[in-house]
Structures are given as structure tokens and as C-alpha cells.
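User: Sequence recovery, please. Input:
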């Protein structure tokens, strides 16, 4: 077994040791780039013990050749596995708590159908599989709406796709499978409204710091006309890609004066109308990333510095062959022998 090695004092196998080494490197790199004034998050990250942040449960262990289930009796050597079984498969509330250090789980054929933990955000497949049923079971472990520390689902229409993002680290063969699965799920989202009409907006409530405000027919008409005027909806009154693109780029058109005081709530209401553009794009994270220019590039000080350092340089070395040969000739050493 690559994760557990019972011949080692800490039972860590090859994968466990590699994980801890890479985790420490990544944590150090992230902390070095994190803003110094972000003290709370720096303290949180620095306090993570790489040896305690991972754990594993395996339905069959090669050493004992049986299920790691404490109900069938466990020998002393299985104590770590019993604790992992209780934590991973039975005590979901403890696993979701910030007080529990475990954040990464290694498993083999144990966390499939029936295992329910809503806060799975990253899945890494260490083996290649063409079995569609197995893939659905595996990916299905991460297709849950996450919950906060109070157990409330993170399903607000305006934020649901920003928070509930599942990253699948797998072979190229998974790309089409995941894309097809996402399309299938999107087609079944019948409970979400798909048309931004006056009737939909009318009667909705805007939650403001001064109390709730009901969207009257007049306000609903202004929201609807705003979307139509700026081509943010199509002929079927569905939210167009142009709206989401403008919002992502920070170039949304100004709202009517009556709506400006409640801009944040109005846009949350618009975002509650489902559109395919809200779905995360299935990207290949292995492709080279571009490093976009930031605002500092246009500053006068940087341009002056760049003008001085962006010139190409040539390093040239000339050798005198005769002198080089003379210097490389071995120097004789005298030995005095008695």
C-alpha cells in the first residue's frame, strides 16, 4: 500500500511522505506571498500541521486483508485505522469542524456511493479508470452543496456557483466525462427561474441595512427595462452572456437612479435568474498559464525603470590561447624522500 506502511514507526507510506513534503513547500510559498497585514489567515495557515492535516481509510488493507471496520474487532496495530474509520465514515460533524485538523483524505474504494460529506472541493484520482459507474460514484462525492459551520447550505443563487466549485485532478480522459456530467446536471435544474421578466421581479424582497424593501411593479419594470436596454437579456428574456461578462469585467451599465441605492441587492436578484453562463467552465489546469499585466505596468515609475533594464545584453569573453595553455600546464611538485 502506497499510503500506509506498517513497517514504519509512523505508518506513513510513500504517498503520505510525499504529501507532507509538498504540503510544507506549498504552505511556505503561499505564506511568503500572503499580505503581511492578513494576520488572522497567516496564523491559521501557519498553524496547520502537515502530519495531522491528512488521513486515510481503506476498505481492505493488504496487511490484514480485511475491512477496516472496528465493529468486527481490531488488533492493536489497527488503532490508527479505527480512528480514521470513525472520523471519515461516521463522524461527519467533527470532520467539518475547523477544530478538526484533517483536511485531506486518502481512500481506495471506500468513499463511493453512500459516503456523504458536503464540503469536498478537490478530488484527485490516483488511478486511471474507464468505468463510467465508478467515475459517477467518485465524482458524486463532490457534487454536494457545501455547508457552513452552522450546517446551513451555501445555496444563495448569487453565490452558489462561486462557492460550490469542484476541482477534479485526473487524467485527460476525465475532461469529456466531467463536461458531459455538468451539462446533464444543468439541464435538470428546473427549480431555478430562467426568465428575467417583470412578473418574476415583482414582489421580491431586497434585504438592505435599513430593512427589507419589496420590489414594486414600478421597480420591477425598471429592472426589466435596464436589462433589455443594455442587451443583458435575449429575445426569450433569459440572461445573456453579455451581462455576466460585463459584471466580471466591472463594466456593467449604471442602474436607474431609483435602483442605485440598492445596487448590490438588485444585482443579486438578477443573478438569481439561472443562465448557463453562470456554470464554471471546465478547463484543463495543466495548460500553460499567462501572467497578465497589472496596474503597476502603466505607472510612470515602472516605465522609467523598465526603459533602463529592458535592453538586451551580450556577454563576450576573449581568450588568449597561448596564455590559456600556459596557465593550464601542471605545476611540478617536489617531493623530498629520505
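Assistant: Recovered sequence (338 residues):
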Amino acid at each position: 500500500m502506497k499510503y500506509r506502511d506498517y513497517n514504519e514507526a509512523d505508518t506513513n507510506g510513500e504517498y503520505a511522505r510525499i504529501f507532507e513534503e509538498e504540503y510544507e513547500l506549498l504552505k511556505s510559498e503561499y505564506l511568503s506571498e500572503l499580505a503581511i497585514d492578513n494576520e488572522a489567515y497567516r496564523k491559521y495557515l501557519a498553524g496547520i500541521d502537515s502530519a495531522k492535516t491528512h488521513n486515510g481509510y481503506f476498505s481492505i488493507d493488504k496487511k490484514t486483508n480485511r475491512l477496516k471496520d472496528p465493529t468486527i474487532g481490531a488488533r492493536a496495530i489497527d488503532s490508527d485505522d479505527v480512528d480514521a474509520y470513525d472520523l471519515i465514515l461516521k463522524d461527519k460533524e467533527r470532520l467539518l469542524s475547523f477544530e478538526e485538523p484533517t483536511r485531506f483524505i486518502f481512500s481506495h474504494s471506500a468513499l463511493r456511493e453512500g459516503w456523504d460529506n458536503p464540503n469536498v472541493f478537490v478530488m484527485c484520482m490516483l488511478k486511471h479508470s474507464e468505468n463510467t459507474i465508478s467515475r459517477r460514484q467518485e465524482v458524486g462525492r463532490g457534487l454536494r452543496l457545501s455547508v457552513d459551520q452552522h450546517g446551513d447550505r451555501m445555496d444563495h443563487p448569487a453565490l452558489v456557483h462561486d462557492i460550490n466549485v469542484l476541482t477534479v485532478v485526473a487524467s485527460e480522459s476525465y475532461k469529456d466525462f466531467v463536461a458531459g456530467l455538468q451539462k446533464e446536471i444543468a439541464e435538470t435544474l428546473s427549480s431555478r427561474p430562467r426568465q428575467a421578466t417583470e412578473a418574476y421581479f415583482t414582489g421580491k424582497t431586497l434585504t438592505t441595512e435599513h430593512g427589507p424593501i419589496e420590489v414594486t411593479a414600478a421597480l420591477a419594470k425598471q429592472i426589466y427595462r435596464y436589462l433589455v436596454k443594455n442587451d443583458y437579456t435575449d429575445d426569450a428574456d433569459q440572461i445573456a452572456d453579455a451581462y455576466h461578462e460585463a459584471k466580471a469585467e466591472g463594466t456593467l451599465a449604471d442602474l436607474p437612479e431609483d435602483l442605485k441605492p440598492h445596487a448590490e441587492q438588485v444585482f443579486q436578484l438578477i443573478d438569481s435568474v439561472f443562465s448557463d453562463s453562470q456554470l464554471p467552465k471546465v478547463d484543463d489546469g495543466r495548460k500553460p498559464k499567462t501572467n497578465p499585466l497589472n496596474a503597476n505596468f502603466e505607472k510612470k515609475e515602472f516605465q522609467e525603470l523598465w526603459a533602463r533594464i529592458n535592453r538586451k545584453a551580450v556577454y563576450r569573453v576573449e581568450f588568449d590561447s597561448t596564455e590559456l595553455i600556459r596557465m593550464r600546464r601542471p605545476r611540478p611538485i617536489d617531493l623530498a624522500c629520505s
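The mean pLDDT is 77.
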